[in-house]
Structure prediction request, 362 residues.
Amino acid sequence: MECRGQTERRKIEHIVIAVKENVEAPSKTTLLDDVELVHMPLTSISLEEVELETSFLGKRVKAPIFVSGMTGGTPLAAEINRAIGEAVEELGLAMGVGSQRAALEDPSLSYTFRVAREAAPTAPIVANIGASQLVSGLSERDVEKLVEMIDADAIALHLNPLQEAVQPEGEADYRGLVDRIRWLVEVSPVPVIVKETGAGFSREAAELLADTGIKAIDVGGAGGTSFSIIESIRAERMGFDDKAVTARVYGDWGVPTAASILEVRNALPGIFVIATGGLRSGLDAAKAIRLGADMAGYALPVIRAAYSGGAGAVKRLLRRFIEELRIALFLTGSRDLASFRSAPIVVYGRLKEWIESRGLKI
Ligand SMILES: Cc1cc2nc3c(=O)[nH]c(=O)nc-3n(C[C@H](O)[C@H](O)[C@H](O)COP(=O)(O)O)c2cc1C
Prediction:
């Protein structure tokens, strides 16, 4: 078990490395580039009337756009969570906080998560804890604390086996995980979301969750932020040269986001799917939604905006994503998300090969 100071230092390192270094998968892409939405020049709607509003966790949101859980546990993280909270509240969107493990270890850090709820009193906010904590003895009281801390609308359980495997202080032991997920669903006062963190979900993983009672899967696909690269940079700085090389070997590991959406959708047609991992525009969000996602999530671009320009910069960025998504619906002649889901698309290249090789349907 780590002590509090170590958890806190690691959190700061993750933020600073993510913001300042090149931490995206070196060669892998999301494969969203292999998706084309077919242009519809003879549209009979106006850009203005395109309706993006939808519901998420029982609340209305102005667009299917989510800021993925990233941080908490340090004063810097508190500022970031506050900035994101302020932005999502004003724009009518939803957000998650990062792993709340630090606040379970030291309750005086709870405020670094609670600031999100204070800044966003009406937005859907998702709590967060890791699979390693779940399998190593998270209690029912702990789960209640995580939810109460931010008056959460759901709790996300993050899976990060890649990061745990290559991290110098990693805890790569997931024995009994599926049973513990079942337990979590039973004791949690709010719905449970299971999320990856940049290495994606496969059909086989989604199938294992079929009868667990979870509410949603966040695919956390590959092609964006690579925790293997982040850990490689950390290991290098800590003087663990071999670990740094090994982490870099796995820099591109994982199911690309576009493929991961299809994998999950094929396994569980009725589950709520959030697509994160390498989404960098509203057009990326549109493609993810057309492939079967219900929501599009962003992490890295948002933390960079929050770090450099606070709430104002986050608002600007999210407004741009919303506008770009709206344009995609307009240009496919779709008045709302329901009609956009049947807009024609073309899939080629590696994504097409992935679909054929895995026997998936769009
Ligand atoms: C600095 C940073 C910290 C993160 N911390 C967490 C975390 O505590 N819990 C979690 O579930 N995901 C965490 N993530 C993963 C994101 O939620 C997301 O799944 C991943 O970064 C892929 O999205 P992106 O390519 O848009 O960054 C973190 C991401 C970043 C960039």
In short: The radius of gyration is 19 Å. The domain at 4-358 is CATH 3.20.20.70 (TIM Barrel).
